Every structure is written in structure tokens, then in C-alpha cells.
Amino acid sequence: MSTVSATLKTAPAGNASALLLVLKLRTFIALIAVTLFFALMAPNFVSVANAVIISKHVAINAILAIGMTYVILTGGIDLSVGSIVGLTGMVAGGLLVHGIPLPMLGVIVYPNVIEVVLISLLVGTAIGAINGLLVTKLGVAPFIATLGTLYVARGAALLLSGGATFSNLVGRPELENQGFPVIGSGTVLGVPVSVIILIIMALVAAYVAQRTPFGRKVYAVGGNERAAALSGVRVDRVKIAVYMISGFCAAVVGLIVSSQLVASHPASGNTFELNAIAAAVLGGTSLSGGRGLIGGTIIGAFVIGVLSDGLVMMGVSEFWQMVIKGLVIIAAVVLDQLQRRLAANTRQG
Length: 349
Description:
Layout: H1 2-10, H2 13-24, H3 26-41, H4 48-73, H5 81-97, E1 100-102, E2 107-109, H6 113-136, H7 142-161, E3 166-167, H8 182-185, E4 187-188, E5 191-192, H9 193-211, H10 213-223, H11 225-230, H12 235-261, E6 263-264, H13 272-282, H14 294-313, H15 318-348
Antiparallel strand pairs: 1-2, 3-6, 4-5
Helix pairs in contact: 1-15, 2-15, 3-14, 4-9, 4-12, 4-13, 4-14, 5-6, 5-7, 5-12, 6-7, 6-12, 9-10, 10-12, 13-14, 13-15
Keywords: Cell inner membrane, Cell membrane, Membrane, Transmembrane, Transmembrane helix, Transport
Transmembrane segments: 27-46, 58-77, 83-109, 116-134, 140-161, 182-209, 240-262, 274-307
Subcellular location: Cell membrane
């Protein structure tokens, strides 16, 4: 690293500026590169049908990554999002299949689809709030706190059905709870509903992060928590809020996945947190907090989605896919560190 730093310090200003620009655009360049590679190497990669499939996969990763970006911007991490996906999917499936038993009244209440969605989103957001409280009020490190809730949420998902799957989530006319599959499989003017949800959430998230006082507080907490507190920012509230946002995003993904499969399985969302972290980091969000953009995260999610689907179409083993994703994350972090050093040297120069 000392050799790299010395090289950066002695590099001509023009070359340093050009390299810095390339590093800032690295995610977009990577997206173009992997797209061109698979367009040449994978049969049928360039087709409308495949574009729709990739967009659905990207929507899942990107929505999760939006919440993850907010958490990472404050200097935290959320390992529980994959388990929240599984739990909220099981909650939705259980409500559609078994309803809410009320033994004291001798009845079973079957919520309609809108109520099922709202309850599931509430569950995900509540788990996010618990994560935030563990981190802020009890002083538990984010990694440990969310690792604990990862296991708790996954165990709760298994307990809801004894490890079984809630299948055939189409609802019943007499119960007025039909329409759930539309969330994951429906289209509007040929555009998948899940992609529309992503677009709406991405626009709102980007606006909140860049144009609102709350967004500025998120960056302030991640940039320098003590300075933010001294300037009047309620750090604990901001941290709790970003974990709630992450839990909400995970619940949205849980609903989309269960809707696409028309079934809820307690193992759904396994390792999804890795893709979310990868998309955020690849998109330029600094793991040390205080720096990153929602737009970069979305592009990062596209890189992960195109890479995953392209490798599948080329017949690459799932084991090698994991290796490649791991290398991509490592490369993203290394390039982020290189960008920070280069930017610092450019300012000093």
C-alpha cells in the first residue's frame, strides 16, 4: 500500500484526475463491460425475455440494497435482511392460507391482500427497529446485533410452519383475499410490477438522501458521528430510522419473492444480504460511512444481476459464481480505498 500511495503522490495532476474520474465511474464501466461480455459469450443473452428476467432479479437485489445503503451510510451493516425476507414471506403466506385464528371468538379472520401486505411490511419494519435499538440503546455492534436477529428471524420463519412451505398463495374468492401473485408476476404496460416498485422506491430513496434534512443527517452521522451529535443531530434516532428503512425494504422483497413463487418457504432470502452489500459497495458506498449514492447502488445491483444471470446462462457452476461474487466485493473495496487515497492526494496537491 505504501508503494501505491507513493505512486499516487508522484503521478502528474492530469493523470491523477483522469484516474480519479475512471474510479468514480467504475461501476458504470463495469456494467457496460459485463453486458458486452455476456452478449458475446452467452447464447440468447440479448433478448427481450432475458431482459425481463434480469430486471426482475435486479429489482429484488436493488430494493434490498437501497435499505442496506442507508445503513452503511451511517457506518453500520445489516446482516438480517435475508432472514427478514424469509420471515415476512412466511407471514404473508400464513395470513393468506391460515388467516388469523381468534380462539376466544371461535372464528378465523382472513385479511385481504392489502392488509396482508401492510402487516408484512410492519413486521419487517419492526425487526429493523429492534436492530436499531440494539445498536443504539444497548450499544451492541451492528455486525453482532444483526447477526443475532438473522438467526432469530430465520428461526421464527421456520416456527411459523414447522419448516413447511405455504403453497398456492392465490387466495380464495369466498375469502376475498385474491390478487397476491400480481405483486411479483403482474405487469403494467409490459413492465413487471416489481420493476415499477423498484423505480418508485429508488426515486423516493434518492430524493430523501439528497434533498431532505433527514438525508443530510444520515451522511453527517456516517461522516463523523461525534461532530453530528455536537451539531444537534439526534444520532440514535437517525440510526434507528435507517435500520427500519432496511427492514421495510427487506419486507418488500419478501412479498415480491413469495408472490413470484406463489409460495412462501422459510429458507427464502438465504444469503440475499450478501448481494445487497455487494451492490451497495460496488456502487460506491463506503463501508466506513458518509459516502455513497442510491443511483450508484442501483447500477451496482445491475452489475450483480447481469453477472449472476450471465454466468448461469454460460453454465458456470454455482460454486464458482460464489467465488466470483466474493472477488467482485473485494475488488470493489480495494478500488474504493484507492479512490479515497487518490482524492485526498489530489486535494493536497
